[in-house]
# Entry
Amino acid sequence: MGNRSFLQYLILTLKGIAMGAADVVPGVSGGTIAFISGIYEELITSINQVNVSLLKTLRTQGLAAMWKQVNGNFLISIFLGIAISIITLAKLISWLLINHPVLLWSFFFGLVIASIIFVAKGIEKWNIAAFIMLALGTVGAYYITQLPPVENTESLPYLFLSGALAICAMILPGISGAFILVLLGSYKTILDAVHERDIAILATVFTGAVFGILSFARLLKWMFQHYKNITLALLTGFIIGSLSKIWPWKEVLTSKVFDGKTIPVLEKNVSPLSYEGDPQLLWAILLAILGFLLIFMLEKLAAKK
# Structure
C-alpha cells in the first residue's frame, strides 16, 4: 500500500472513473476493471479494514492512525472516481444504450473477452478443483443472466436489499451490479433517483451497499488468502458466463415503455446477419478490437509502473 504521489492518486481516481463507467452498464462489472487495473486485492483488503477495531484505533491513536489503518487515501481516490463517473456518465451511457446499443455492447464485449484471458493468467495451477470452479462460475453467471427481470419497485427495504446485492456483484469480476439491479427491478428507480437527486432513495441504496460491501469483502479476502487459485478460476468462470448478456446483437422478445422510451425486458442473442436493426458490423468489430486492446494497454502500463 505505502505512500503514493499525487500523480499516483490521480491515476487511482481515473481507475475509479473506469470502474464507475463499467458499473453503470448492465452487463459489465466494475470488479473486472479493478482486477485488470491491478487494484483488486488492495481494494478488498482496504474495505476489510473498515470494522469495529477502527473505533479503538481512533480512541487510542487518533484520526491519522485510523485513516492510515483503513488505507483512506486509496479508498477515497477510488470511490471519488466511481462517484464522478456515475454522476457524469449515467446520462451519456443511458443515451448510448438506447441510441447505439450495438456499438456500446461491442466495445464492452471486446473488453470482457480480454479480461477473461487476463484473469485466467493469474491461475497458477490448473487442477481438477480449478476446472470444477471454472465450470461452476460459468454456469452460475450464465444462469443469472438468463433470469427474467422483476417488476420495477420503489419500496425502501427492497431498495436497501438491492443496494446490498448489487455492490456484492460490483466487486465480483464478471457479474455486473447494474445487471443485478435490472433483475431485481430497481435499476430504473435508482437511475431516476440519480438524475432527480432523490435523497431518500439514494441514502437507502447507499446504506444497503455499505452493509453489503463490508460483509462480502470479508468472504472474498478470506477466499483470496486461503484458496487463491480456485477463487481466480471461479471469477474467470463468472466472466465467461456473463458474455451471453453482453453479446451486441439481440432480438427483443418483450419490452416495456418507461417515460416514452421502449426498454427491452427479455432478449435473445441473434447473429449479426439476422439482426433486425443496423448491425453496424465494421464499427462493431473495430470497437470490440479497441476494447480488447485497451485491456492489454492497461496491463502494460500497470506492469511498467
